[in-house]
Amino acid sequence: MIRTLALLALLGASTSAAAIDVAIGNLAPGTLEREPVAVFVDGDQVSRNLAYRRFVRLDLPEGSHRIAFVAPGDSAAPLVERQFTVTARNGTTPTVVLAGNGTTQPYSIEFHDGSSQPATAAARPSISLHHLAPFERAEATDRHLVAGTVCRNNAGHGSTQTRDIVYRGEAVFDPGDLPRLLCTASFVLPGVGGFELPQLSLPPNGVMRVYLIGDAVNAPFEIIAVVGTEVQSISGAGATNPSAIIRSPTFWFDPDRPSEGVSLFEQTGNSAAFGTWFTFGADGHPVWYALVGGTGTSFLRREFTVYEARRAGEVQSLAIVGSAVLQYFDCNTAELRVVLGGSDLRTLRLRRSRPVEVCIALDRNG
Amino acid sequence: MQTNAIQRLAAICALAFAPVALADVGMAAGNLAPQETGSGGVATIEVDGVVRADRLAYKQFSNGFRLRAGNVLARARDGSGRELTTRTFALRDGYDYVLLLTGNGQAAPYQLKLAVDHNYPIHAGEWTDQDIHAAPIATSTGLRRFNTRVSCGGGRTDLGAFEYGDGTLDNGRSYHNSHRGFAGNGDDQPCIFRLLDPGSTAPVVETVFQPETGVRYRFFAVGDGVRQPLEALVWLQRREPTVATVAPSAGMEGLWLDPANPGAGVSIAYDPDALQQNLITAVIYGFDETGRATWNFLQSETGLVRGVGIFEYAGGSPAGNRGTVRYRLTTGGTLEFHSCSTATLTLRLPSEPLFPAGTAFGQLEPPRDAIRLVRVLPAGSACSNSANFG
C-alpha cells in the first residue's frame, strides 16, 4: 500500500515533468484460465486485474523501468518480467504487452517503443502488424505468416503491402500520407488461409498496432487493433459465444443469453417440428435437450415435449423432462418457454441467427 | 394427422439420440496358431455353438459372417475336434471384428483374440492397414518384440514398436501405435512390410506386396520360430468403395448423426459470409464419460493449425451470463464432407488426449473414433435448401 502510494506520488510528480504515456496490455491467451493478471512496474502494483485483450495506460518518466506480470496467488513468482526503456518519440505510445501461453510458447514481454516506425519529420499515421499467436512452432521460419495491409481512401487510392512474419515479429507498414485512409490488415498462412480485419481507420498522427493473438487452445485466433490503450477493432472470430459465430437459418439465439441456443427444424408437408436446445445445467455443465413436437393451438405456435438423453455403457435412455412452447412472431423472431421438471421456467426470446425472407413456419395453415 | 407427424419426428429423434437397433456386427475369423504337427494344423471356430469357420488352415482366414451384437461365446477346436480354448466377448452394434486363434500352447497359450476394424474412410488412391503381433516367439526376456515398417516406393512409414498381442483388444487398443493404420498412395509401387529387431535397421523378415486402393489390409507378425517360421504376413481383409471429398456448401446445413454412435448428433451451419476458414460451424451433441448429455462447439479452422477445433463452453448458467462462460479448446480434428448427406468427423490433436473428460466424445474409443455422419434433417440426400429449414 505504501509502495503504491509512493508510486502514485512519483507518477503525480512525474506528470508535471517528462511523463510519457505507456500502454500496457495482456495478449497472453495462457492467462485466460486464471485471469486477470497483476502488473508491477518498478516493484509497485499498477494494475490488479489486467484481463486478456485489455490495455491500461500508465504515465512513466523517461528512462529505464522494470515490469512484471503476476498471476493471482503467485505474487512471489511472476509469470515473466523484463527491463525496458521509455523514450519520447513522435506520435508513438510506448507499448508493453504480455504474450505467450506458457505451453506451446513461453510467456514473454514485448516492448514496442516506435523505433521501427517510419522516420518522418512530422508525425503521421503508420500501421504495425505483430504476430503474437503462440501456436506450436510459431517461431519457425517454415511456419511464417504473411502480414499484409491494404489501405485505400474513398477515391480508391492507396497501397498494398505484405511482409513475412514469424512469432513475436513486427511488420511496419507506411500507408503514405493520403487523407482518410481505411485499411484492411491480414495474416495469412500461405496456401492454407488466414484472418483479416477490415475497416481500420488510422489515427491522424500515430501508430495503429494490429496483433494476431490467440492460440486456438485457450482462446481463438483473432486480430485486435489498438491505438494507444484503446482497442479499435477485433475480428469476429474472437467472439466467445456461439450466437456471435453461428450464422444459419437453423440456429436461433436470445441476445441476452448468447452462450446457449436452439437448433430448430420444421418439417415440410406436415406440422411437425424438431429442435435441440443446447444450454447449461444449474451446475454450469453444458447440457442439451431434444425438442419433439408440432403445431399447437395456433399455426404460429409449436408445442414440444422435452427429452433428455443419458447413456450408460451400451444402454441409452431418453426421458421426458419437460415441455416447451414456441411462439413465432415472424420468420425470424420467436419466444421459447420451457418448463423443466414441472417448475423450472426458462424463456428465450429468440432471433434466427441468419434471417430468412420466407419460412415454413409462417406458411402453414394450422 | 398431427399424431402421425409427431410419430415421424419422434422416430427421427430416436434415430438421432436414442439407441439404434443395428442389425448385427461383421466378423471374420483367422487361424494364426502354430499347432503341434499331430493336430493337422487346422482350426475350427465356433460362435455360440455354431461353426463359423471350419477347418481353417494355418494363416487362413474365413469369409465374413454376421452376428448379433451382445455377449457371445467363441470356441476353437483343433483338427481332431479337441477344444483348444474358449472365450466370451461383448460385441458392439455396428462394429466389424476379426476373431483370431493365436498362441502355440507353449510360449503363449492358445487364445482367441479379437481385433476391431477402425472406421476411417478410405479415399481414392489410399489403402489402410491395421497391425497385429501374433508371433509367440520365446526369448530370455519374454516374448520377442519387433519394430515394424512399411516402405512404399521412395517413402516409408515406421509403424512403431510391436509387442505380442498388440493390435487386439487384449492390449486395450486395436492399433499398436498412434499412427492408427497407414494410408498412402500405392499406385504402381510395391510395398514392403518388414519386421525389425528393436534398434536394428536390418529386417528380420519382410513381405513384398502390391497394394490396391480401397483395401483394408491387416499386417501380422506370425509364427513361433519352431513349428512355423516367423513371417510378416499381409492379409487383404476387405475391399470397399473409396470416398470423395467435396467442398462445404450451404447444402450441408442441417442435423447430422452417426448411426453407429447413437447420441452423436451434429447441427451444422454454413455461413457464406464468413471468412473462408470459418465457413462451417456446428454444435455437437453427445455424452461425456459419465453418460451425461453434453454439447460442444465446432469451428472450422482452415487457418493455422487444425481443420476444425472442438470447443467447450462451461460455467454457463440458465441466465446465460456470458461473463461466466469459459471457452476452451478440447480437441481438434477434421470434418470432411463426402456429399451433402455423408461426412466424416475425426478428432485428432497430437499433443492432447483424443477425448478429453467432460466433452461430448466421452463414449467414443479408438479405433472406432471416426464419427461417420449422415444428414437426417432436412430429409433426403439432396443438397438442402435453406428455405426448407423452417
Show unreliable segments of chain B: 1-10, 14-22, 176-181, 349-353
Number of helices of chain B: 1
Biggest chain-to-chain interface with counts: A-B, 84 and 80 residues
Task: Describe the global form of chain B.
Answer: elongated
Q: Which series of helices and strands of chain A comes N to C?
A: HEEEEEEEEEEEEEEEEEHEEEEEEEEH
Sheet bearing the most strands of chain A, described? 8 strands, antiparallel, barrel
User: What is the approximate shape of chain A?
Assistant: elongated
Strand line-up in the sheet with most strands of chain B: 18-19-20-21-22-23-24-25
Structural class of chain B: mainly beta
Relative helix content of chain A: under 10%
The helix/strand class of chain A is mainly beta
From the N-terminal CA to the C-terminal CA of chain A, the straight-line distance is: 70 Å
pLDDT average of chain B, as an integer? 82
Number of strands of chain B: 25
- β-strand percent of chain A reads over 45%
User: In angstroms, what is the radius of gyration of chain A?
Assistant: 26 Å
- Quaternary structure of the protein: heterodimer
